[in-house]
Amino acid sequence: MRIQAMEGDVAVAVYTEGSNGFQQECQQTEDLTNGHSKHTSMLNGLPPGNGIKENGSINGNSYLKSVPISALKQNGLLQSLTVGGDQTKAEEVDSELERAQQEWDALESIQPVLVEDLTPSALISFNEALQHFQTTDLGDLLKNIQPTIRRTGLAAITHFLFGPPRLHKELVEERDLVFAIAQCSLDNSQPVHMRVLQTIYRKLTCTRADCPRYGPHWENVGFQGTDPATDLRGTGFLGLMHTLYLVMDPETLPLARDIYKLSQHPVQNFPFSVMSINMTRIALHALREEVLSKECNRRQQVVGVLNDFYVATFLHLYQLWKTQKKTISDSGYVLKEVELHAKKNPKQVLRHLETFLQERRTGIGHRTSPDTLSQSNPSPGDRESRVSSQGGKEGKEMNFTGVCELPPEMEGEARLI
């Protein structure tokens, strides 16, 4: 039995254990304000009139499921349950505070890393990238190359008698390496491949930091989507190697940026990287058709001649595109003309590049060769457009996919790929 005194009332409570194991309370309260006394039988702090049956249930259910918190507090049950847990809770709070303090101390020692401070990957030169392929086993790729056109019958006889000279035997291995690189796809696991990509992007955009492997930023340098690898069909990694040569050679870098600037023109814009890949495709066709064999034999190298031919072809396209105010809707026919001219006059195209670079070295500036422009056979409208360097075509923005289709029967179809 326990006597409990409550503030404001004089109360006597007698606790007895009921048949259900819980204390049964009989409480007498005397109201001090009126002097009358009340005698109320309580079951765990609740009067019998609250629906509590004698068997310790409420409306047929165990009363523990519906006993209010105030009643549990009144009869001291909550106090008895929490007395033993106060010490454990205090220890847990101390532990949490200590852990939080340790984390805060650790945060103070962490220094923020700015994007500008991230160390970019080292730029890679063309020769370093080429050495990577020279020391890599490309045996499987070499089995699938087609370095020359297979001719039979009268075509073979005519080519033998009147065609260009054959490539010297000592240059065959170097030529086959070029075609093997053209069979190689972009590999994310190869650091050299990733450095080539980053070098091209940073040299064209004049940025210091590396860019993500995937993303819309690649469209800024003329790829058609978020992954440059999807545009390398037909030329493989050689397409990137030629662009790398263009931006890493000190003599051709200004030309690369001139072409890139034109590709960003509001009217005459075109996808720079995709156009560059098309120049690689033209160069590969010229090498396969043995158009460059004579020059390769003279200089006793293949890679160097192919690089120069690629740049010379790109220069021809750039000057034609700029002076004749071409737009993306003209790209199909422009590429066709450029390919035919380059294959037919490889020596002239290479000589024009040499003259162009020489003029730049001496500070004369780059001028458009009359011979080169005469090959394009411009229309009267084109000649008129050359009079004013400021007058551009007014028209809506054109999508890259809107290029002209060329006749399918043309071998080595010239088109944006």
Automatic annotation (TrEMBL):
Positions of region (Disordered): 360-405
Domain ELMO: start-end pairs: 192-346
Protein name: ELMO domain containing 3
InterPro entries, sorted: ELMO_dom (IPR006816), ELMO_domain-containing (IPR050868)
Organism in which the protein naturally occurs: Astyanax mexicanus
Domain of life: Eukaryota
Classification lineage: Eukaryota, Metazoa, Chordata, Craniata, Vertebrata
Alphabetized PANTHER family for the sequence: ELMO DOMAIN-CONTAINING PROTEIN 3 (PTHR12771:SF2), ENGULFMENT AND CELL MOTILITY (PTHR12771)
Ranges of Polar residues composition bias in the record: 370-379
One Pfam assignment: ELMO_CED12
Region forming the signal peptide: none
